[in-house]
Amino acid sequence: MKRIQGLHRFCGGRAGRRAEGASPAAVVTILCALVFAGLITGTGRAAPARSTGAAQPIATAPADPAIARALADVSATHIRQTVTALVDFHTRNTLSSMDSDLPPKTGVTAAAKWIEQQFTAISDACHGCLEVKTDTFTQPGDDAPRSRVKVPTTITNVYAIMRGSEAAQAIMRGSDAGTDPGQASRMYLVTGHYDSRRTDVMDSHGIAPGANDDASGTAVSIECARVLSRHRWPSTLVCVAVAGEEQGLLGSAHLAKLAKDQGWQLAGVLNNDIVGGDTTPGDTLQDKTRIRVFSQGIPATAPPEEIKRTLALGLESDGPSRELARLVAGVGRTYFHTNPAGFRPVLEFRLDRFLRGGDHLSFNQQGFAAVRLTEWRENFDHQHQDVRLENGKQYGDLLKFVDFNYVANVARLNAATLATLASAPAAPEEVRIVTSNLDNNSTLRWKPGPGMPAKAHIDIVWRDTSAPDWQYHQPVPAADTRNSSMTLPISKDNVIFGVRACNPAGQCSPAVAPLPER
Ligand SMILES: [Zn+2]
Questions:
Q1: Rounded distance from Cα 117 to ligand 1 centre (Å)
Q2: Domain 2-62+426-517, CATH 3.30.420.10 — does that match?
Q3: CA separation for the pair 63, 335 (Å, rounded)
């Protein structure tokens, strides 16, 4: 295998000029031709009869020590304190921002100030490593019967930015490789919504604890800021708490548009909504070892022509949000496989649950890759319900139904995903599959993503068309990574390909599905 990989490097052109005329060079030329004809692969075997015969099965990536240390700092106790503090605001209904008759230390505005203080305290502890910001705007009133905002209403999103570190980059890139502003400016975002609601979404005064929906997701975002701020990461991380979700995704819509307008290089969004692991006495169907990851297949912004082409090629499960979800699943395998209790992300190939929506959609609608994390089995008596006892049954989104150890696992998954994305090279660009001839081989082309470190390499992944997640891969030798092309003896008709970029530690970007190139 080493010999053939050496051959790849040789064929890559660097040493080619030394092989003039001599007969061994003629052999090399033939071998090179075979390699590029796809008859010999990087594994050194002749072309197999079955399409995936030359494949190396994808192995679970090793855990990164710095990320593992950050995950060890995640605290169920701290998460409990955060969720409890948010519940104690009595209501966090977005409309309460316009009420002047609320008791002190209650309502959504007080909650926003408290969240800002948490981010500021985290930043103080890391010597100002976070930029703590608010995005406050007025949502215009609309008196239409179904409107959830009748009068102009102040909405505040709170967020903390941890800029990509040049020192962390130098470690990733090799000390002589310098730093790349492209890698530092790439951003990954975690969010939850801190607003809450009662049965009547317009009721801004009654008790609306919103412990699970979505103090749990807000606590995940704050916990990610707390544990990740103790380390430095090559790319930029943004930890967010939005409001206005229950009134119609208003806060996230505003922030996603702000990100678009300000040109944020936002490469992935994790939306945590209802991640409390509802614990109801007598419910035997809840599964604390699973977290659902919802993702959209075809991008929300795809124009009709692109949708037509995507469906014709069977690429409806390979939009950027779906590839991000697959990366979350891989991170789960890396960081939870040794956990005896078990915890794993489950891919849900749909935008969201039936009849429901979430803040990831706002980011999807601005063209960003975004996924939603939600507990395995929701209890609908414990969300969007007035707190009450009815025929002996407890309704309401109460603190006592939240499992803080479960939320801690969700926070670990988020933190590990953010840190992996921030450490991995940028995804390759202009990924294409050559379709100029009828051919049982597949030639892939790509352009390395911005700031791709010298030590990084391209990895081609593929799966059966009926398989949900990547099954096989072929690392591309460094020389061919720069040449930006590789041919594999696998029929493009039988598999779905992706191209990703990986660093030597095995941390990879999300894969990018190739578009056809004639
Ligand atoms: Zn929610």
A1: 23
A2: no
A3: 6
